[in-house]
Amino acid sequence: DIAATLHNLAAIAHRRGDLQTAHDHYTRALAIKDKVLGPGHPECAITLINLGALHRSRHCPEQAHAF
Q1: pTM score, two decimals?
Q2: How far apart (Å, rounded) are the C-alpha atoms in residues 26 and 53?
Q3: Is the backbone of residue 18 left (phi > 0), alpha (psi -120 to 50) or beta?
Q4: Do residues 48 and 67 lie in contact, with contact meaning Cβ atoms separated by under 8 Å?
């Protein structure tokens, strides 16, 4: 599905160091998952965890803590 593909593309971008692209893809994936599955779904949690890790990679601990 589209959300899973976006999530995977975000993970690849994150590993490559393309943090803005990773953020954009994770954010889009999360929006889709929230709408389709509901915000409390475990798939949403996985994307939120990865967004937190991304913010930590960007040296933004305040934003990382939010996730």
Answers
A1: 0.85
A2: 11
A3: beta
A4: yes
2-66 under CATH 1.25.40.10, yes or no: yes
Taking a C-beta distance cutoff of 8 angstroms, is the pair 26, 51 a contact? yes
CB atoms within 10 A of CB 37: 13
DSSP-assigned states of every residue in the chain:
-HHHHHHHHHHHHHHHT-HHHHHHHHHHHHHHHHHHH-TTSHHHHHHHHHHHHHHHHTT-HHHHHH-
Give the residue ranges of the chain where pLDDT is below 70: 60-67
pLDDT at 63: 61
Query: Which pLDDT does position 67 carry in this prediction?
Result: 52
Is 28 in contact with 51 (CB distance < 8 Å)?
no
